[in-house]
Known about the structure:
Elements (H helix, E strand, L loop, with lengths): L1 E6 L5 E7 L4 E6 L2 E6 L5 H21 L11 H13 L17 E4 L2 E4 L9 H11 L9 E3 L5 E4 L10 E4 L1 H9 L17
Antiparallel strand pairs: 1-2, 3-4, 5-6, 7-8, 8-9
Amino acid sequence: MSFIQFFGSALQVTPHFHSLVPDGVFVPREGGVRFEPLPPPTQAEVERLLRVVRHRVLRLLEKRGALPAQGPEDALQTYQAHCLQQRLRWTEVDVRLPPRKQPRCAFLEGFSLHANTLLHANDRQGLERLCRYGARGALALERLSRAEDGRIAYRMKRPLPDGTTHLLFTGLTLLRQLASLVPWKRSPATAGQRSA
């Protein structure tokens, strides 16, 4: 099961997937199927898969004319394309330090793959927690407040590398930012979002 999300915790356009996959395969047998557990992926397998995913995503974006952007048809697409290009600079070298090493996690030129979360087969609460996380909406209303200068403050889930803990918006800039998080037409929406 996969959740497609278009946003990050800082209200930025960050298209990504949260996928729940079994840690094994279902093998047909007489009268049904048998579940055959598999070992977790190795670091090399995670890195190899990320290279394949990156290659295929970039090829698809080029094929659809989104890389480089060639003038979307409407204002929402224009704004989403702008935010996406600001967030993922496909043609520039990422000069930030790579995240600290974690097992079964890989990072490559703006792409990342995390395959190190495991739940016990009977951990129903953990499964529900993961599903709720994947299906959450873009905006956590409890993190919104009014700043002393009248702007709208959005408390970050985690501080940015420069120490920033809150994002500040005027009403109009917040609406622009939220408009960029609306999924494209005919795309699946996560909880709290609608297709435009």
